[in-house]
Amino acid sequence: MPSVLPDGDPAPADGLLPALCSHNAQERTMSFYVHIPFCTVRCGYCDFNTYTAKELGSGSSQASYAATVSQEISFARGVMDKSDIAHREIETVFFGGGTPTLLPASDLVSVLGRISSEFGLKPGAEVTTEANPDSVTRESLQELKDGGFTRVSFGMQSAVPHVLAVLERTHDPKRVPQVVQWAREVGLDVSVDLIYGTPGESVEDWRASIEAALSYEPDHISAYALIIEEGTKLAAQIRRGQVPNIDDDDHAEKYQLADEMFAAAGYQWYEVSNWAKGDEHACRHNVAYWQGGDWWGAGPGAHSHVGGLRWWNVKHPAAYQQRIDGGISPGHGREFPDAEAVQLERTMLLTRLSSGMLIAELDEHGRKAVAGLIADELIDPKAAFAGSVVLTQRGRLLADLVVRELLDF
Question: What Pfam families does the entry give (predicted)?
């Protein structure tokens, strides 16, 4: 089952935000995340807040979910107004999960419509949905495009059947080029997600997946190292010796291979795990997260961030629906991270970006550490001389070490 929520302070039933959240709000971007917590099956590696029909039980309904989450969006507008948070049009929207495209395209479009009617979408707003290759048709993609979506991110993961089998992915890898073609035909930007380091995946398996992904010519590629989360089926299989454990050296070799092959094909890295064909195809929604923008997360277990305050909704769809039906905030807990936590997170996130982090933002210890990190070939000397910490490829492999050195912990 998904991991437990953090504790934090209890979130108030009215959802109102402290006055501090309104400070300089007009200078920050505003985004929306919509969590769709439904999947046809639970993949063995997944630790996300998702539910199959069997796990869902009574008290919540997939059929009525769009209406329920739309109520939270209207609730959000009321909270922002009553909390005197400056109104801003939404710059990016991201539908994640779960598998958002298990809902009818009309449902996703109606939720986007509620965001637009309550907050307004900024001209040129980026609107993304995640999708499994077996959860869309050309017609549903056309409906999403006509309804205001601009981008789709397909969970490809691998092109190799035995790797997909370990991950318990259900789609036929031969379907991926078909759905990418459909998305392109209707005018959507396309991203594909890959996972490397699956137990039993050889370097040649990984090379085959990269070559396949590149052959589809997506606008954007994400490549994530498999992380074994406690409580997942895959973690139990590894513990019992049914599948081999993951290996850090294997991860490093596969990351380097991906980075080199992506670069040779014209993709530029803009974040440690993300590559795009030019800045215009970078995922602006994720960049807003990494750069500390504001966002409201709607749906069970969704996290939000406004003006430094973080809060998270109750996790189970039934509890979430009960709160929404009762007209009260679905928030479970919230917190203002202290200055040390904020600096740690900011350093971790900004140094993962190709734009980097300004050296001037570091304290004296961090500024002094830069020279050593250049000597160790972990940060780019040219960027450092220009005033920014930008990771080299080696530095991207050791990003956590770089952060520890910059912050002295």
Answer: Radical_SAM
| The Cα angle at residue 323 between residues 318 and 324, in degrees rounded to 5 | 95
Residue ranges and CATH numbers for the domains of the chain are 9-290 (3.80.30.20), 337-409 (no CATH)
Cis peptide bond upstream of 326, omega within 30: no
SS3 string, 3-37, reads: CCCCCCEECCCCCCCCHHHHCCHHHCCEEEEEEEC
Q: Is the dihedral of CA 221, 227, 231, 234 positive or negative?
A: positive
Write out pLDDT tens, residues 212-223: 999 999 999 999
Q: Residue written as tokens 């500390």? A: 292
The strand pair at 189-196 and 220-225 is best described as: parallel
The CA distance from 285 to 283, in Å, is 5
CA atoms within 13 Å, Cβ hemisphere of 267: 28
Nearest residue to 345 (alpha-carbon basis) of 263, 290, 406:
290
Contacts of 309 (CB under 8 A, 6+ apart): 17, 18, 20, 21, 334, 335, 336
Give residue-wise pLDDT tens across range 334-370. 999 999 999 999 999 999 999 999 999 999 999 999 9
